[in-house]
């Protein structure tokens, strides 16, 4: 049964995680968000942060000036004073110009900060995800779903400033701006607000600033109700992201295996599986939709009420001659602004909910990266003279602890050629992974000679995107080798017909047959000239003649190279001098009499 990790995220097959405590959630979010401000880019980061912070005061100042302007404007109308209209219009244009300049500058800084922050986080996560083979380990154990989406999309959504998603910093800045503006408008309202008078137990009580209190109460009640209405929406959003990601990875899986699915006549089955996966998206979308409708309804009632409620509250004072028409209109604007700023939470509830789910998913990735268990199998360097590879007390386990095969002590001498034989599933490929340091489950030790240059060739070769030359030279850069030697190699491995195409950029992994890919592997080996070569069924797709040619090329070109190869075909035993036989969870070694094979 998969267990929840520290973040509460569980392995994908169990679905959504139980909710985290809000304290832990805030701590994790803080850790993720704060790193950039102490990174090498800290000067720009702080410059942008401080500038954006002060811009919030600038925005509040502009809102204040607009409010004062409204008051003057409506007073001029009440007094029918036409001569003041032109000067007021000029002031209005000035305020508007200031506002436009501020918005543009703020957007520019926001955008630059967003991409630099994202760059920092993306590099950090790529480093940590790929360091010490964590990315392969996460896939091998299927710890979390879609780490790619978390790095590409969730980090973008957290740091974003422009576009459809409003990022975390943007929301924080708007909250600060709202607070500053709320204080400013509370001061304006205080100017004209009559006190609230009532008697308590015979004592007359007077609280100054009635309108301010009404606006604050209005915003708090609105925020509370929206928070309540919004809770199911957040849960539905988190579910939606998981399901969207599953649907997308299903599509990618079908695309990658298109030919195999067609050959198996399984198009209808796969189509149905995709439909089911999309059904999960579709059904949950209803919850997202109904949740967002609830929030939208709450938001629009809140907005509408905010425009008339202050008039009903202040009109009695106006009728009693306690304020001018301009003050009434400016008071209504101030009430609306105060309510809007205090109630930013109302409007931003969806955004905060989305951010919480992005942070949670990134935290899940963090846990998966940091969740590295101590390796049971130690891999090191240093062997006795004449030994190129050795194991000591090596036992291989399955990922969840069950024993797979007991290898014990095994020494491979310089120049020896070992065949690893045994039934399917006995653990031959797992031993090779352990030798390469990619299988930590088990106990014992693997050591390699200090000066050895090892190369591991799996059954299915990895061909990077790009030219055929890049695929042959990999992991070297293509420029490291000249075209003529690559063409000669292609001839040597019986792929001479591709020699004119080495600069063609194509999907070589899809285009070349498995047997051709195994001959590309041979070309790579001849180019790299390793001192220790480990082959895992590297000729499984070749016909008998080409498989023999493969080993004969190795024998001729790399006579000193030590070779360990997993084989199923006894006809290839003649190219080896020892074999390691896997049977019943153990191994035994024996010498091969090459004269009789
Ligand atoms: N990532 C993994 N997660 C869980 N089990 C695994 C994983 N990789 C391998 N195994 C299991 O370990 C066992 C040994 O697999 P391995 O690939 O080493 O066998 P093999 O001897 O190379 O087989 P074959 O000859 O068919 O290639 C198998 O039962 C396999 O299911």
From TrEMBL:
TM region positions: 44-64, 85-104, 171-190, 308-330
Cellular location(s): Cell membrane
Gene Ontology molecular functions: ABC-type transporter activity; ATP binding; ATP hydrolysis activity
Annotated spans, Disordered: 1-22
Residue span, ABC transmembrane type-1 domain: 50-354
Top-level taxon of the source organism: Bacteria
Topology with respect to the bilayer: Multi-pass membrane protein
Keywords, sorted A to Z: ATP-binding, Membrane, Nucleotide-binding, Transmembrane, Transmembrane helix, Transport
Name of the protein described by the UniProt record: Putative ATP-binding cassette transporter
